[in-house]
Specification:
The protein is of the alpha+beta class. The chain has helices at residues 2-10, 15-67; strands spanning 76-82, 90-97, 104-105, 115-127, 133-145. The protein starts with a helix and ends in an 11-residue tail after the last strand.
């Protein structure tokens, strides 16, 4: 009997510190999981805004192709607007004439000598909320009758 009482006295109650330690570890894991989840939501939102800026830049190129003025004597034409069905997504598209507005002459001879090609570059910048921005470039070549208004066909 004496021996069993001695064993009972030596037990100090380790269950409470172990349980508190496990509770602390579980709490830290839960807080880390919530923070990771919040960062994931922010990253998903930023990706969505980046995609909207991408689409706004593409809308700018599309509008420049549809309504732009491709006149080689005008160095730069600027188009601005908002993406349809949005309030915060906008674009700015610049149409620049290349080769100093000079025509690129035909190289094949015969009737091709009466035509020239004029080269333009469309640079469109789309913006969305949270300062998201995307810039796209598009080259455009236009075949037009040769005109003596310009200094003559350019060579290759």
């Amino acid at each position: 009997m004496f021996h069993t009482r001695l064993i009972e006295r030596r037990q100090g109650g380790a269950a409470l510190p172990v349980a508190l330690l496990l509770l602390l570890v579980i709490t830290l894991l839960a807080v880390a999981g919530m923070r990771s989840s919040a960062v994931g939501f922010l990253m998903a939102g930023n990706e969505q805004y980046r995609q909207k800026a991408f689409m706004a830049a593409e809308s700018g190129i599309e509008q420049a192709m549809i309504t732009g003025t491709y006149n080689p004597s005008v160095p730069t034409v600027t188009l601005t607007g908002t993406v349809p069905n949005t309030t915060s997504d906008a674009y700015t598209a610049n149409i620049q004439s290349e080769l100093g507005g000079a025509p690129q002459g035909a190289i094949w001879g015969s009737s091709w000598n009466s035509f020239s090609s004029y080269h333009f570059e469309v640079q469109s910048t789309g913006t969305s909320v949270r300062n998201s921005q995307a810039t796209h470039n598009q080259g455009v070549g236009i075949i037009a009758p040769y005109t003596p208004t310009f200094s003559g066909p350019g060579g290759l």
